[in-house]
Amino acid sequence: MHKCIKYISVICLLAALHGCSDGGRNVNLRETYDYLDKRPFGGYVAYHLLQNSYPEKTIQVKTNSFANTAAWISDTASVYINISRKFYVDEEDALALLDYVYKGNTAFIAAAEIDTLFLGKLFCEQVTFSDEQQYINNSFYVNTLTELVPALRNSADSQYQYLYLPFSNYFSKINDSYCRIAGYNAKKQANFIVFFWGKGRFYLHCDPRAFSNYFLLHKSNYQYAAQPFDVLPANPEHIFWDDHYNSLLHRRSDSSKASSFFDFMAEHPPLNTAFWILSWLLAIYIFLNGKRRQRIIPVIKPVQNSSVAFAEAIGGLYLKEKNNKTITDKMISYFNDSVRTKYFLNTSIINRDFLTSLSRKSGAPFDKTEILYRTMQQLSGMADISDSQLLDLNDQIQKFNQYKK
Asked: What is the crossing angle of helices 352-362 and 324-343, to 10°?
């Protein structure tokens, strides 16, 4: 492949990306390294540089763990690329990756924190500085650089610089029998190594920012990624770009067990965010509606005595018509009915025995009882009754009803 043509096409790509500026708005500095992410710390440029190195090959993007990917791969000359902030694997993933490279394949891994479980199997150790540690050390926004060893250079540039957090991570221990240094940071500490494993090779880089859009778009820094990609196998069977581990930010506590629900959520940040938002909204809803709701109890009007209302209505009618005779007959009839019902006496025959029994049962004096019935007999035989006579009868009945045994 003609290098000049390749670099011209890459420069055109970078120029196009550089033109997609957001006009000075706030810049999102989240490190995703996603192959579709064009933001400063996405992996869009690195992905297309790799694609440019293999124009006749199709890059397969994988979103599963390596153990799941390797389960159906039998290649012996393929390339696996992983650029992520943290490269956390379990025992199954680590063994599958080691076996994959041992067969003759190549793995290129760039991560700020490579799992110690994996590095331990390669007899390597890594020192990682968090962003907070660099802030404390006043290492924020400085002119920093990284470089490749001469064996990997195919251009006059040996050092590549940019303005941001320095490339501080490095490999503190490597196995000289199987490993070679491929690059250094500004302090001449190894941050890029090649590990020979079986028939294949591991390319390990401990600072993925060197493969971010922001770094590669600065001047000719794209060559820092293009040159290592050039030393990868010239005609691989397949090319795999891993987009799984760049979203896995937590190591599983027990790798021998299947991942829990929260492990799965942690591996998918958008889904995890949506889950917690819904959880908080549900909690707020339950809190605000936790009090037991009770419908308003309607006011129930007391049951009216319709018979009393009817009697009052009829009585009012009789009073209005001045029909004292009828009122008198009704009063006598109602009184005798109450005597029959309350005292169980026969009112058809009014004699001394009846009056004596009624006086004894009601508690009223005999003379008062006798006068009441004499008044009722007198008024019953009269055709015309005055108001005073009607009121006198009513007064006697009311007084009689007040007596109690």
From this structure: 70
